[in-house]
Design a protein that fits this description.
It catalyses: Hydrolysis of terminal, non-reducing (1->4)-linked alpha-D-glucose residues with release of alpha-D-glucose. The chain has about 375 residues and is of the alpha/beta class. The protein contains twelve helices and 16 strands.
Length: about 375
């Protein structure tokens, strides 16, 4: 959930990345792009308040461009109480004052495009902050927000005692359920109690979150990195999960549920709609951690596949829907696998003979884009 506090420079790889890399003009921008990850809080402070901001990112775009970068991915800058470093969103359509204003974002977007670069934003759809107005209204059963979140009555033990609805465990320590004294029910949270999960079995929620995508696409975003995609659904029967210390056998009802497939396809369709209007392909990057089960190998193999930049994680980049089904898990694993907090020459961070060959081809591409490239090491660096 929480990503590195420092920005990481990493390279995306296309499907297989064989001879096609040598002739990159045949590929879309997102198939060979050099993607630069920026955590705004620690990147560049433009107003001397000790916190990085959107204007600070704008000030450093020439530097980012000069090292051969084609696209930047900015981690959450939305309005948030910052309990989880911005991954607890209070308002999806507002910039947190810590980082600037919506006008600052528009200026940043224009500056990125003026340099011929692409802009990728974090999309945090699994949960909101408990400070979000939707949650406050849902807690009071005010329509249409009553079922925007997942609410359950307590499980009865006897005539005098009740307990949580089931044994589901949060990613953070403790139960996945927290009691609301206002609503007199438990709400579900895959992560912290301050991050209640949205209810995607409610069509109104799906429409609301599609609206978030459209809002930022209208402002010029070229794509999204989708956060916590494996946690978007839980089994509708709410049965206890089997006791186990193994992630893959324990979280059978709360991780990588089959419904994730259709939801990501719906989001992909929204981006395709915009691509058809402006002729500019966009992308969705999704990350899943832990062992790959059916959902991750089916839902997230829609198009080209790339690399892993967290240990035991897989990153999937989905192209236009016309390319869905052209890849397989074997092809995913032939992509570039990078170690945790990747640094140094790409060829040194790849593992396995096939991956190493892929990485060498990609490093060759990087050398052609930036002849002065030797070894770009950015992890842990502050601008």
């Amino acid at each position: 959930m929480k990503t590195a506090l420092y920005f990481i420079l990493f390279l995306t790889a296309s499907l297989g990345l064989s001879e096609e890399v040598e002739n990159s003009t045949q590929l879309e921008w997102w198939e060979t792009t050099l993607l630069y990850q920026i955590y705004p809080r620690s990147f560049k402070d433009s107003n001397a308040d000790g916190i990085g901001d959107l204007k600070g990112i704008c000030e450093k775009l020439d530097y980012v461009k000069s090292i051969g970068v084609d696209a930047i991915w900015i981690q959450p800058f939305y309005k948030s109480p910052m309990f989880d470093m911005g991954y607890d969103v209070e308002d999806y359509k507002a910039v947190d004052p810590t980082f600037g204003t919506i006008e600052d974002f528009k200026e940043l977007q224009k500056a990125v495009k003026d340099r011929g670069m692409k802009l990728i934003l974090d999309y945090v759809p699994n949960h909101t902050s408990d400070k979000c107005e939707w949650f406050k209204l849902s807690e009071r059963r005010i329509e249409p927000y009553t079922d925007y979140y997942i609410w359950k009555d307590p499980k009865r033990i006897n005539d005098t005692h009740t307990t949580v609805p089931n044994n589901w465990k949060s990613i953070f320590p403790g139960s996945m359920w927290t009691w609301s004294d206002i609503r007199k029910q438990y709400y579900l949270h895959q992560f912290s109690a301050q991050q209640p999960d949205l209810n995607y079995r409610n069509p109104k929620v799906k429409k609301e979150m599609e609206g978030v995508l459209r809002f930022w696409l209208d402002l010029g975003a070229d794509g999204f990195r989708v956060d916590a995609v494996s946690h978007l659904y839980e089994a509708a029967h709410f049965m206890d999960e089997p006791p186990s210390l193994n992630w893959d056998t324990f979280r059978i009802y709360t991780f990588e549920q089959p419904e994730c497939v259709d939801l990501v396809k719906e989001w992909r369709a929204v981006l395709d709609e915009y691509s058809k209007k402006d002729g500019k392909p966009s992308l969705i990057i999704t990350i899943t951690r832990g062992p790959a089960r059916d959902c991750s190998t089916r839902a997230l193999t829609f198009g080209i596949c790339g690399f892993c930049f967290y240990r035991d994680s897989r990153v999937y980049i989905t192209g236009p829907s016309s390319e869905w089904g052209t890849s397989s898990y074997a092809k995913i694993n032939s992509g570039m696998h990078l170690t945790e907090a990747t640094v140094g020459p790409i060829a040194e961070t790849a593992t396995g003979d096939q991956c190493s060959g892929t990485a060498q081809k990609m490093q060759g591409l990087l050398h052609r884009r930036n002849p002065g490239y030797q070894s770009i090491r950015t992890t842990g660096t502050r601008m």
